[in-house]
Each structure stands twice: as structure tokens, then as C-alpha cells.
Amino acid sequence: MFLSRLEIVGFKSFPERTEVRFGTGITGIVGPNGCGKTNLLDAIRWVMGEQRPTLLRGGRMEEVIFNGAPGVGPVGMAEVSLTVENNRGILPVEYSEVVITRRLFRSGESEYLLNRVPCRLKDIVELFLDTGMGSHAYAVFQQTMIDALLSEKPEDRLGLFEEAA
Amino acid sequence: MFLSRLEIVGFKSFPERTEVRFGTGITGIVGPNGCGKTNLLDAIRWVMGEQRPTLLRGGRMEEVIFNGAPGVGPVGMAEVSLTVENNRGILPVEYSEVVITRRLFRSGESEYLLNRVPCRLKDIVELFLDTGMGSHAYAVFQQTMIDALLSEKPEDRLGLFEEAA
Amino acid sequence: ARELFMKTFEQARENFQNLFAELFEGGQADLILEGGGDPIEPDLKIVARPKGKKLVTIQQLSGGEKALTAIALLFALYMVKPSPFCILDEIDAPLDDANIDRFLAIIRKFSTGDTQFIIITHNKRTMEAADVLYGVTMEKTGISKIVSVRLEGQPVGVLSEREVSE
Amino acid sequence: ARELFMKTFEQARENFQNLFAELFEGGQADLILEGGGDPIEPDLKIVARPKGKKLVTIQQLSGGEKALTAIALLFALYMVKPSPFCILDEIDAPLDDANIDRFLAIIRKFSTGDTQFIIITHNKRTMEAADVLYGVTMEKTGISKIVSVRLEGQPVGVLSEREVSE
Ligand SMILES: Nc1ncnc2c1ncn2[C@@H]1O[C@H](COP(=O)(O)OP(=O)(O)OP(=O)(O)O)[C@@H](O)[C@H]1O
Ligand SMILES: Nc1ncnc2c1ncn2[C@@H]1O[C@H](COP(=O)(O)OP(=O)(O)OP(=O)(O)O)[C@@H](O)[C@H]1O
Ligand SMILES: [Mg+2]
Ligand SMILES: [Mg+2]
Asked: Residue C122 CA: which ligand is closest?
């Protein structure tokens, strides 16, 4: 199973429809400070069902919607679509390719789609849960986790192990 | 007032007598991971009177003495000498140049010298205290301080201000 | 739950010992779990002894040694329940050239073993190791745009001039 | 003591506002002190608005923006009671090329104003900005040695071959 395509519009610093095609091996993401690289990581987390705004560096979920730039007003909706190749039949669906889509409107309404068919957030989360991967469908390594391991407090270090178990 | 010369022997990863002559402007210190750069910073802190082993990344003060390497046994004493140019007459001494020396023996005994004359730790600390600089005689900027400012806990952030005041 | 934790811990510990020895080309590291019986709080000690140096806790290692040891532990935990893809966000920042190469060797090993990597980095060597490279830019303030990038032996300082828009 | 704290705070705050505007070429930042009256714990909020972007707390900035903002604040505090010399230990790690240049411009400004700097770094641009450069090596495992180093337009990757022993 691998990620083939990420499509973002209206999410954080990406007001315009933007697409990234990932390689099967190592895809590098580069650019100056503050240009949007970590926002791509946030987009992947968000479309896979992340519900904690703090893990997306926001106070409220609404903060992931593009909120404007000089000369450009805020938009009303954030949408992210992730295409996953099911090349080893790991996902419990007949398709060789699965597209998960998540939308959030300023009203607070959310929409979720699996291969363009409306579904519930639960269906997206369970898609990966059934594979035995669950929230382990993807692994993210960030400085905050390294800081936790280096922390003087045992509970910070143990926290990572409890999450993995 | 500026640092002109640092001499280290037996301190941390410097078993052999080593000398650094600092420029009046910007002196850069480079090298691979783990080669001893931060140890130089620790040496400067230590000779200026730092008494907290944790700020020197150790559990006990004895840990600053070189404790051995493959084929080289531990040594019995750590010694650091720092030469300070008193070019603007800031330091309350007649000399244009002051050499502060600190030694620590495995026995736990310490020696302090000002221009090669034995003195007490108190005399070294007060030398800078009287200038109104006190522990502000030098400023150290490290990642731990940046982490404190970025911490979620207000007390960590405020801590830096209280230290400065 | 306690059993699951211990099972995870033992596997992670073994992975960590092996990965550390590989990343540090020798030397040893270990995880020590203590306490957990009332009233003692459980404590996790991470100790390491780079080749030719003394055994210390992770906090006493140098900046780059700490980072590489923590990376070994993150991968050790990852291996207990591997995912098909891994996203790394600038974790190579404190590593010197020699350590970046060792870090990339481990990445390639996992990559050959079918793990897909997405690596955010400012490091030239990491960029060279990537099969595909994307640049994120903000020409218009506050608006991100993605371009594909080629290195082609150019000093990466001229990255922006070499950008090939998608 | 309370009065001394407030005096320090107000001076640091003003320095911070100025330094941030300088380091970020525009934009604004502020320190907001709240509470301190029982039973409310005093809270220090650090907020910043890089040029053309929205006002956020420091934790919500990007990795490099956070680091540069924190550096501005460390210098702002430093200016309240300046010392004759400053030691920086690898604080430039998360900064991109453009931000390193701005960071070095501030360093040079303080340096011309009589502050002596000792900067530990892995960054090539910071190395180029130094007047004097020392390399620390560990040819024999566990034993540090210092050599003086010259850059001379050589790619710094060959630092070790260009080392001139003292
Ligand atoms: N909802 C939003 N609307 C508009 N812009 C946003 C929104 N959320 C975040 N941003 C912008 O995204 C930028 C942060 O991007 P990001 O964290 O991805 O940077 P980065 O490329 O990872 O940088 P660094 O190398 O410094 O880590 C900030 O400038 C912020 O203003
Ligand atoms: N008392 C001691 N005796 C011998 N070696 C010591 C002693 N204390 C520390 N060391 C060694 O010093 C080394 C750490 O050096 P230091 O922290 O200065 O590295 P560094 O150059 O700052 O590296 P980095 O770039 O990774 O931050 C460690 O390898 C440690 O083994
Ligand atoms: Mg980032
Ligand atoms: Mg260091």
C-alpha cells in the first residue's frame, strides 16, 4: 500500500488547487521557512481522520481552512483528497486504488468521501483500522517526539511507548 | 572586556593541554557531532564559577574530569584557565589582563587562582559581580532556552525573564 | 493492557539495540524499565555508549548523538508495528555529514523493504538521496505553491532557478 | 523584586518588538503579560505576525519562524543587561538561507557594537561570517583536539583537508 497522490484546496496556506504525486521510494520536500511543508504533513494527517486540532497546530478545527493572505480573502471550505494504491491487497476493498476525501466548511459541517461516494469519518478510520494498522497506517516522526524521548520526565518518554502499544 | 585565551587540560574530552585564542569579533567553532564543541562552552562556564553540575550536563561535578578513552586512562585533575582583556577598565583590578584558573581534583578538592595567585571561588565570582554584570558577565544562547520560550507552560517562559531580572 | 505494553517494550528494546549498533557503527544502547510498582512511578531510562566512549544517559550525549539515538529509538518503536509509509519532518537538522549518511543508509534499507518515505528537509545530502523532489514556495505572501525540483549536480543554493513547474 | 521584574519585562518587550521587525523585515510581535493576581497564575503570551500573515502565538509559527522569533526574544532579553561576550550553541540549525543571513546581520550589528561572539555551528554561511574559525576534531576516539581552519573559497565539505594545525 502506498500514497500516490495528494490534492489540496483551501487547506491552510494552499488556497489554490494543488497536487503532489509521491514516488514509491523516497520523496523529498524542500523549501524556505514558513512556505508550507509541514502543512502538507498536516493535510495528510487530517484527511486520514485526525480529530485533534492541537496535532494540526491549531486551537479549533476551523483553523485549517485558508484564512486569507494580502489581497486574497479567506475561503469557505478546506478539502484534501488522498489517493492510496492498494497494490498488495491490504485494504479491505475490491479497488486497486482508494481515494479518501475530507471537507470542512466554515459552518462547521464536514463531508467525507470514499472513491467519491459520501461516507462517515468512521468509515475512513475503519478502512485502515481493519488492516491491523489503525492509527499506525502512517508513521510521523517530528521534533516534538524526539523532545519527548529526551525529556527529563519519565512520563513523556513512556508516553510514546504507550501510544505504540 | 573580551576573552582572549582559553586553556584546557583534563577537562571533559580534552585530556591534553589545548589552547584557543578568540578573536575580538566573531569566532566560529565547527566540527563533527560529539567532538567536543559544547564542552568548550562548558569549560568557559565552569572556570567563571558555574556550580550546578546539571548545567554542565553532569550528575556530579567530578564528571568534568577527563574519565578516559580507548588506550588512555582517566586523569586526576581538570584545569581551565581563561584570559580576559580588561581593555575598557571594566574589571575592578589594576591589570589590563586577568587570568582566572579553576582546578578540580578527583579527591573533590578545588583550587582557584587569579593571575596565578590562589584565591577563593568567591573572589572569581565577585570579580564579575562588581562590574554590575554578575552572572551576566557572559550570555549563553542554547537550544534548551529556545525550548523554554516555546514551551506550553507559562512558568518555563517566565523563568527566563526572572533569571534576566 | 499491561501485557501488551511489555510485549511492545521488549520488541522495541531489541530493535533499538540493533539499530543503535548499526547507526553508530559499534557501541551499545539499552532501554531500562524500572518501577511501576506502587508507590514508585514507572521510569524508562535510555542509556547509550557510542563506540569508544562511556555509558551515559541519553540526555548526557552531545546534541547530534542525542538526535541520532532518539531517531534509532523512533525507528525501533516503528518496527514493532510498521506502517506502509513514513513521514519525517526535518529530524536530520542536528546531524553532521557523517551521521546524515548513516541515517540515510537506514532510510534506504527500510525503503527497499517496501516502506514509502516522505522526508521534509533542509539538508543537501538528504535531498540528494531522494528519488523525487518537490519544492514548496510562497512567491505570493501567504500562498503556497508546489513545484517539482531537479538537483542535477547544481549547488542546491540555486534551487529556485532550477525549479521546473509541474 | 516585582518592580525589577516589570522593569526588565518592559525593556525586553520593547527590544523584542524592534528586533522582530528587523529580523522579519516587517511584521510585528509582542509580549503579553497576564494575570499574576491570585488565584490566577501569571502567564506570558508571545505573539507574532510575520509580514503578510496572521497574528498567532509563537507555538503556531512554522519551525524556522519559531526559532527566529525565539532568537529575537533571547537577544531582546540580552539587551536589557548586555554582556561583553555571547556564546551561541548551534541555534541557527532550523533556519533557511534567507533567515541565516538576517540572523547574521543582527550578530554583526551587535559585534560592531563591541559584543564578542563565540558561535558553535554546522552552518556554512555562519562559518563564512566568522572572523576566526576553529575546528574541533576527535581523530583519536574520545580525545578532542583543536585546529584553526581557513575557508578560502573552498567548499566547506573539505574542511578536514584544509585544517592548519596550530
Ligand atoms: N488556515 C491558514 N490559512 C492561511 N495560512 C495558514 C493557515 N494555517 C497556517 N498557515 C500558514 O502556513 C505557514 C506555515 O507553514 P509550515 O508550518 O508548513 O512551514 P514550513 O514550510 O514547515 O516551514 P519550516 O521550514 O519553518 O518548518 C505559516 O506562515 C502560516 O501563516
Ligand atoms: N569527563 C569526560 N571525560 C571524557 N569524555 C567526556 C567527558 N565528558 C564528556 N565527554 C565526551 O565529550 C563528548 C561530547 O562532546 P560535546 O557535547 O562537546 O559534542 P559537540 O561537539 O557539541 O557535538 P554536537 O555537534 O553533537 O553537539 C561526548 O562524546 C562525551 O563522551
Ligand atoms: Mg515545518
Ligand atoms: Mg553540542
From this structure: 1
